[in-house]
Write a structure and sequence with these properties.
Blueprint lengths: L1 H9 L3 E5 L5 E10 L2 E6 L2 E6 L5 E4 L1
Antiparallel strand pairs: 1-2, 1-5, 2-3, 3-4
Amino acid sequence: MMQSFIVEHYLESAVDVYCGGPDIFKGSVKACADNVLTLENDGKLTHIAIDKIIAMWPQ
């Protein structure tokens, strides 16, 4: 369910993603499939397990 929400509302958008602790991941949503969110930031890809996401918001 979260996967379809991300695809519908955030695909190709710049977001911040919080998964707990001090780290916030930033980037543009490039893909969301197989319960993995893929962000691109400065040409680098970050893959985040959707079940670890606590919050996300547009930049």
